[in-house]
Write the structure tokens for this entry.
Amino acid sequence: MAFLSLFTQSPSYGKDAAALKIAVAANFRVVAEQIGDRFADSTGVPVIISSASTGVLAAQMRRGAPFDLLLAADRARPQALIDDESSPGPAQCYAVGSLVLLGASSLHEALSDPSKSIAVANPRSAPYGAAAMAVLAREEFAAASERRVVRGSNVQQAMQFYTSGGVDLALVARSLSPNSGITVPPEWHPRIEQYAVLNARSNNAQSAQAFLDYLTGLNAVPVLASFGYRPCS
């Protein structure tokens, strides 16, 4: 199966260090790249990031993709990988995400206006898309139920639809626009808890666990906060 991915590789840090291959939900790609660089500097283990929607990455891992670690945007798909023994588990929460509305000065006015087209991620494969659709389905926005909704394959593509001018609005992860847009109240959609799991086929489990420990440790807190992620507890 062809990987629908974007790749970023850290510089090589020693000929004996096996590269750590991490599958990352699209909302978290830039954050994972930054933390991956810091981890590589600290440990000498080079990191390769592969990014797509959570659903696509989980399916790839199940079918034998050579990822060592999956950083998903939900809990259900990591748990399903554990249930079918694609992962040894346990699933570990590493961040809580949030939604932002781009292209508007008023959250209620924009989401109530049927003339405003909007981009979201595919709710079937992207948890941020499912959260966005939960927001649009709220009763106070029923007047705009016939609006044009454009679905990207992942949250990055939804953002691209907006930045290219193809739509008026976008409901995307706060991490894609840390300094602009209107934050959607978290009670408007299911809590976006992002979980990670190891790949049962990995030959680099020790480095994968070390990265996960780094990601959930104090060193990563400032980076996560700068992209709008909250701690799990």
